[in-house]
TrEMBL record:
It comes from the Bacteria. This is Extracellular solute-binding protein. Residues 46-57 have a biased composition (Polar residues). It comes from Paenibacillus chungangensis. InterPro entries: Bact_solute-bd_prot1 (IPR050490).
């Protein structure tokens, strides 16, 4: 049977349509927490390279089964009517058109629960699914278990040519999954726009006759006004300046304070190249002390939520989405989630660049080139089927793709005079729907530059292509945020210079060092410790293993020169 043509969004669209916890982990911090020991990967085997039989239409016949688990679907997910996690529009299409029986063994709807369940499976020696999405922090531990296969040869045999070309152009993409010269997984590539954008209540600015801040000093004036001058005009003293998360870390991925650190110099939990050519750990740089002092000042003045240290990324957003905070700093897709997802009126929100520090510096944590990898059980027999699936599902979609316009006509789009309409009232998609969540490979995409499209739409260009039409229907704050992200990405994004596997000392002491750091920083912001406690932390960090970690990180770095 020939593949049915159901047209889907181009890459640039889907990148913000559904925000999931996958992107939630897209910060560059993935080298401090050990993720476990790194013992030799005994027992790992190479992927089988036999081709599964297909019929004249290219379907696998008999059908092949691929099992997996997911952090994107759960019992709490709102599914299209009649669909479930295991039987839905996507699984039926894949089976009918490709001869692949895609089975989700279990699913949860947040990253923390997903990783906990994964680690329990590994520790309990449970049977692994055929394919598993694994975060950078856990990749080394999982590969070292000996339960996942080397895919080096299978990649060369079956991977799409456009994917091969991407990895050939940047061989460092393999670094997380490479061991002893072999590749024990497929790094995940995405086209997400994830640098920090400052979202502000424009109506609050207008009510107080204020302009959007461009510097940290100007931001402080706005924070004071939003906290003390009744910006929502309800006659109550019930607002704060900015929503920040602090439960895990301050320089996080959304509801983040990372822009404050970037305004003064170095970023916590990232390694950077120092003037002497060595890699040094950002968290012990004196500029971090200055940024912590500024955050402590803001906390003391009431600009921040008093429960800052208990708020994770999702909880921290509530003060903004519920109208109690005037500023939210997060990825460009934030107008979709958490704002629209919480029922917020996004029309009162405007997107602005993050502010600069006293020396003109600005920056936020850049997403790593790849934050996850697909690992394959050593018992998996169908690498050819996986790569055939990936080739069809991987963005950007060509015009003849069955997924050029959307997941399914009538579900998330209709065609009117040959053009897709994505907001028709008769569409069957539930709230917060996205095809990505149902896919084995989520939002896997060949990275591309969409900046011109965003600029053209903001300038009034008539949208023609499906991705242009979709983007033109976004809230204006979201479109502006994507344009800002694309424009400032190179200058703003602060990359982690250490991209290697956890070193021996990191594997042993990384968790302890990170706990020491995060607890000290939060206590300084809470004014429970004086600012000079930072200096004591630096001394303790070095003595507790930090100096040795630095030595090992630079040994790795020297091998890359």
């Amino acid at each position: 049977m020939a593949i049915k043509k159901r047209k889907v969004l181009n890459a640039a669209i889907v990148l913000g349509t559904v925000v999931s916890m996958l992107v939630a982990c897209s910060s560059g911090n993935n080298n401090v927490n050990s993720g476990g020991a790194t013992q030799p990967a005994e027992g790992n085997t190479a992927a089988p390279t036999e081709t599964s039989p297909t019929n004249s239409d290219g379907k696998f016949d008999p059908p092949v089964t691929i099992t997996t688990v997911t952090p994107h679907l759960s019992a709490d997910t709102k599914y299209p009517e009649g669909d479930t996690m295991t039987d839905n529009f996507h699984s039926r299409w894949v089976k009918e058109n490709l001869g692949i029986d895609l089975k989700f063994l279990w699913g949860v709807s947040n990253t923390e629960a997903y990783q906990t369940k994964q680690k329990l499976m590994l520790a309990g020696n449970e049977e692994m699914p055929d394919i598993m999405l694994v975060h950078n922090e856990l990749i080394s531990e999982f590969i070292s278990s000996g339960r996942f296969m080397d895919i080096t040869e299978a990649f060369e045999m079956y991977a799409p040519e456009r994917l091969k070309a991407t990895f050939e152009n940047d061989p460092d993409l393999w670094v997380r999954v490479r061991k002893d010269g072999k590749n024990y997984g497929l790094p995940v590539l995405t086209n997400m726009e994830t640098n920090a954008i400052m979202f502000m209540r424009q109506d609050w600015l207008d009510n107080l006759n204020l302009k959007a801040p461009t510097t940290i000093d100007e931001l402080e004036q706005v924070l004071d006004a939003f906290t003390n001058q009744d910006p929502d005009q309800n006659g109550k003293n019930d607002t704060i300046g900015i929503s920040l998360a602090g439960k895990d870390k301050l320089a996080t991925w959304t509801a983040t304070a990372d822009f404050v650190f970037g305004a003064y110099g170095k970023m916590p939990e990232l390694w950077y190249k120092a003037e002497d050519g060595t890699l040094q750990y950002g968290s012990i740089n004196p500029s971090v002390k200055t940024a912590l002092g500024k955050l402590a000042e803001w906390f003391n003045k009431g600009y921040l939520d008093k429960a800052l240290g208990t708020l994770d990324n999702t909880k921290a957003a509530e003060s903004f989405t519920q109208g109690k905070s005037g500023i939210y700093v997060g990825p460009s897709y934030s107008p979709n989630w958490p704002m629209k997802g919480a029922g917020m009126d996004v029309s009162v929100v405007e997107a602005y660049p993050i502010p600069k520090g006293p020396e003109g510096l600005f920056g936020s944590t850049a997403a790593a080139k790849t934050n996850h990898a697909y690992l394959f059980s050593k018992d998996f027999q169908h690498m050819d089927a996986f790569f055939k699936y990936l080739d069809i599902m991987m963005r950007p979609y060509a015009e003849d793709s069955p997924f050029y316009y959307g997941a399914e006509e009538g579900l998330d789009y209709i065609l009117v005079d040959g053009k897709p309409v994505y907001d028709a009232p008769e569409l069957k998609k539930p709230d917060s729907f996205g095809m990505n969540d149902y896919m084995l490979t989520f939002n896997y995409a060949i990275p591309q530059d969409n900046s011109q499209m965003y600029d053209d739409l903001l300038a009034g260009k008539e949208p023609v292509l499906p991705n242009e039409i979709m983007a033109s229907q976004w809230p204006l704050a979201r479109l502006k945020a994507y344009a800002l992200d694309a424009k400032n990405k190179a200058a703003q994004g602060m990359q982690n210079a250490f991209q290697g596997q956890p070193t021996k000392t990191l594997a042993q002491k990384g968790e302890l060092l990170l706990k020491m750091e995060r607890e000290t920083f939060l206590k300084i912001v809470y004014n429970e410790l004086p600012l000079d406690a930072f200096d004591k932390f630096v001394e303790d960090w070095k003595k507790a293993g930090g100096d040795q970690v630095t030595t090992e990180v630079n040994e790795w770095y020297n091998t890359t020169k």
